[in-house]
Amino acid sequence: MMLLEMAVAGYGDRVAFVDAEAQQSITYQGLFDAASNAANDLRTSEASRFAILDVSNLAIPIGLFASSWAGMPYVPISYRLTDDEIDGLVERVKPAYLVTDEDHIEHFHTESIVRWHSRSEFLDLARNGSANGAEPWSMDGDDTAALLFTSGTTGAPKAAVLRQRHLVSYILGSVDFMSADTSETALICVPPYHVAGIAAVLSSVYSGRRAVQLANFTPEAWIELARAEEVTTAFVVPTMLRRIVEELEHEHHAQMPHLQSLSYGGGKMPLPVIERAMTLFPDTDFTNAYGLTETSSTITVLGPDDHRKAAASEDRAGRRRLASVGVPLPGIQIEIRDDEGHVLGPHEHGEIYVRGEQVSGEYEGIGRLTDDEGWFPTRDGGFLDDEGYLFLEGRADDVIVRGGENMSPGEIEDVMLTHDAVGDVAIVGVPDEEWGEAVVGVVVLKHEATVGSLQQWVRDRMRSSRVPERLEFWDELPYNETGKLLRREVRARLTESMEKNA
Amino acid sequence: MGSLTPGTRLKSTVCTTEIMVITAPPDDIEIKCGGEPMSQGEDGNGGSVHQDHADGSVIGKRYTNEEGSLEVLCVKAGEGSLWAGGAAMKVKDATKLPKTD
Lengths: 502, 101
What we know:
Low-confidence stretches of chain A: none
Oligomer: heterodimer
Order of helices and strands of chain B: EEEEEEEEE
Radius of gyration of chain A: 23 Å
Shape of chain B: globular
CATH architecture of the domain at 399-501 in chain A: 2-Layer Sandwich
Number of strands of chain A: 26
């Protein structure tokens, strides 16, 4: 709330958010008043959590600030889940106040929810309320600001706890107050239940931008909106950028002269996609942002200058920078450690640890996973180069241990992607009697190739232990909606087909 | 004044200025606004801004002391100027970071 209060004092009459689909907009002052009215309704509900199951629209920022005002954790829930999964999550945040779209409202008549509103009811009570002002909000930085269910690519979702001080630290460390001029427009297309969705709202508010919300991402809609609204800044996940680039396949230039900056993160960006994007958007500043839910979003940044320098570089080492996620934000420290917790040097591969004011590392019902000195184990594998640039190598849980040798699926995938027949690839380890784990994989082909030729491609470029023993050809790989490869599913399906053929 | 920690909110007692501590020094330091000590409480003392402490505070700006051991964020502007440990605080230059979201 402090951030919104500052925004109102600095530029209350500016337009804060625009719902592109509903063609509704709200100013910063309007957002403040709506949050006040909604906070009053929250406070009288006897709920302990504010849950919202909806796409991006004006109810999202209103709900985020209203819950902060009322001192209630904000819990955005994915609308992509099944009804049973949604029930399971709601059960974990009861007693809840729930806002959802008209399609879902019928479903929620469970005891876990003490008050519910459809999106239009909620917008009505917030925007048309008397604006008498709610009781003051709490200034305690230890209050829980948000509970975010992590994507759970490896198991049941955990509820990450982000406290007010974590989110405020992230914003103060990454955005300057009122740094946007009145021509700046952001395009928000990440779903509200993703940490990047929360970060996008808060960054936009603190910098004073006008933010246009795209409820349902399609590359056509994104391109049309970016052009029509003269969008100057946007964030996308890798699959979104891949689809935007594919949509513009037959064009030489994206024709978006207003787009000053395009940042991406939330998963591994294939090199061909970012290279092609830089050609299509020659005047746009690209930024790679790496972060986790547990770290209040971005912790490292590969900036526009790094992108240009890497793309223009003649040598392999120089170009490799384009695959880096960059250097830590001010206030963030990164270490790479081995399995025993020893800190490793440059180019040594291990697990990424992070420390900083914005790092929570806490889960509800589990506690804080940071050590005594505040370091959080990300479970992401990686290494730093000589100049402190961080490179990711997949989840630590994905590391394949074959005959005592640790290998990351990512390094094998990167080599296979350089083969012109390989469109997409996933390498996983499956249980193996002789080696402990065997290296196997799935390939999506662009044109015909044999398993033997692909194995030979790897053998010519890597140690023989890296050569996949078995490769299957699939039509597509399983991804979640924010672009994370579901290795668990690849592994399960491969194991099943191998057992069938055994 | 109690000891300062990151997140501590202080109000001027003689103008509308409010600040939040971002970096706290190891030892306590007296922060003044408009020539009077700032308070963690609610009420002003009815005094007025001293003439030689009236350069004002600017919302959204960060202020540091000479040593850089104390950094505060101005969250509400006012007429008084911010002082720490007997010297005027300086506006810290904005960090130039690429847009990340």
